[in-house]
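BUG: 3D viewer hangs when loading the predicted structure for this chain

Environment: internal workstation, default settings.
Expected: structure renders.
Actual: progress bar stalls at 90%.

Input used:
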Amino acid sequence: MRTIYKLLFIFWLLFLSNNTNAADITLTKAQSLVREGIQRISNTNKQQWAFELHSYENEEGDITQYSASFNGAAAKEGQWQLITWNGETATAKQNRAFLKEREKQKESFNIKLNQLVDIDSLQVLHNSEDQLQVTFKVSIDKLGNDAKGKLQGQLTLEKANKLIRQIEINNISEFSPMAMTTIDSFNMVLQFNEISKQVLPKTAELMMAGTFAGFIELNETSKDEYKFFKKLE
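Structure tokens produced before the viewer hung:
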């Protein structure tokens, strides 16, 4: 299930304590700020960075945890290396399986941020001197046609530096991504940090619950944390 639903570059809801009226900012200006925020993320050169990924997944009680390192300066086939798997030092066989799975995820579920956030559907939710929060419609083809119109996103942006801090996506009604499968609850949160003037992922969390064939319970949670960033010379 995870390879279908987890978004690649995949962040609690911020309520602004010092909001002004949302109407104080024009929709055109809000759209422009969000576009610039998305562009900042797109402009980040991953090849300039080394970092670690720490991942946790609980799928119907089956827990998997691992850590892996990324080095953007290495040859493509050696950029990712598995460090630990379920608390033990990773073996060469586990590393090969990890690399194969990453490629599989990349090929099967690759979506760009400017496709995820529908700029034309933006609505201003909160606006203050420092922050902007908007809602938007979400369309993710890999979740199937039935999910269209049933997902909604919220985005929080720091206005001064056009920094997107968080994107959260929730379902507003149940949907069926494939035959005999019903998703009752879907929540994805992406968070970002600014380091050395580049925007980098901080955490990616996914929670999904539903049923298969009407009675088999589906319950998946996962969290990826990106740590120990180092800019490469």
